[in-house]
Amino acid sequence: MTRHVWAMGLAALLAGCAGVAKRNVDPTILQMRLVANEAGPDTEAMTLRTARGEEAIHVQKAVLLNAADVRRAWVDAKSAAPGTHSIGLAFNKQGAEKFEAVTTANIGRRLAIVVDGKVLSAPVIRSAIRDRAQIAGAFTLEEARAMARKISAAAGG
User: Fold this and answer.
1) Is 95 exposed, middle or buried (0-12, 13-18, 19+ CB in 10 A)?
2) Lower Cβ count inside 10 Å, N or C end of the chain?
3) Taking 50 as the threshold, does the pLDDT of residue 15 lie above it?
4) What is the pLDDT of residues 28-71, one digit of tens each?
5) Does residue 87 contact residue 121 with C-beta atoms inside 8 Å?
6) Hey, what domains does the chain have and what are their CATH numbers?
7) 54 vs 76: which has the higher pLDDT
8) How far apart are CA 61 and CA 46, in angstroms?
9) Separation in Å, CA 116 to CA 10, 30, 126
10) 14 pLDDT more than 70
11) Burial of 51 (0-12, 13-18, 19+ CB in 10 A)
12) Residues 103-126: pLDDT tens digits?
């Protein structure tokens, strides 16, 4: 009986490991793409909505990071302005390496954070960043929770 229980436990463990290796990720939910200074054949016109209004930006079509690079997302209320919420992102190992390379190579440029085809933020990269990021914005708690859930689900987390 003990062997049978041990074998069942090992089979469950191996099945769980297989699920981790083959995450069912929807990479289109979250994309990080550079913002270009002007329109071109490799850019897409998008709109960034902020508290100050709308800004037309030219976002490069090349996706630098996506939901497959994220380990998890959460509502990060403590670092946002009072009454607003932001979304925290933790990258997996591959995502952290990619994000560090992207931010190191593009200091001074804007990085568009696109969720569900909409630009949520396009901050200027000020320094190299590795493990975590924040999508800052004037999100309500409900909006932030919904986005964090959607990104985590898309990332398989």
Assistant:
1) buried
2) N
3) no
4) 888 999 999 999 999 999 999 877 789 999 999 999 999 899 99
5) no
6) 25-154 (3.30.1360.200)
7) 54
8) 11
9) 39, 7, 25
10) no
11) exposed
12) 999 999 999 999 889 898 898 998
Cα Rg for the chain, rounded, in angstroms? 18
Q: How far is 51 from 47, CA to CA, in rounded Å? A: 13
CA distances from 68 to 40, 80, 102, 130, 152 (A): 27, 25, 16, 16, 10
Residues facing residue 55 across a β-bridge: 48
**The two three-digit tokens of residue 26, written as one number:** 């929807």
Give the pairing type, strands 70-76 and 65-66: unpaired
Of the candidates 47, 46, 86, 95, which has an alpha carbon nearest to the alpha carbon of residue 67? 95
Average pLDDT over residues 71-91: 82
DSSP H or E run through 115: strand 111-115
Retrieve residue 39's tokens.
């329109």
Question: Is the CB of residue 132 less than 8 Å from the CB of residue 89?
Answer: yes
Residue 144 pLDDT more than 80?
A: yes
